[in-house]
Amino acid sequence: MNWTFLKDLFSTPSVSGNETGSQLIFERYLEPHFQIKHDSIGNSYAILNNGHSVTVMLEAHIDQIGFQVTYIDSEGYIYVRANGGIDIAAAIGAHVNIQVRNGHTINGVLGKRPIHTQKPEERRKLPEIEELWIDTGLPPEQVTNSITIGDFVAFSPNFLKLGEHRFTSCGLDNKVGIYVIAETLKRINSENISINVAAAGIVQEEIGCKGAKTAVANLKPQIAICVDVGFATDVPDMSKKKYGDIALGKGIIITYHTDSNHDMIMMAEQTAKENSIPFQRSAHHVPTGGTDTSSIQVSDTGVKTLLLSIPNRYMHTTVEVCDVRDIDAAINLLTCLVKQIDLKTKK
Question: To which H or E segment does residue 98 belong?
Answer without folding.
Answer: strand 95-99
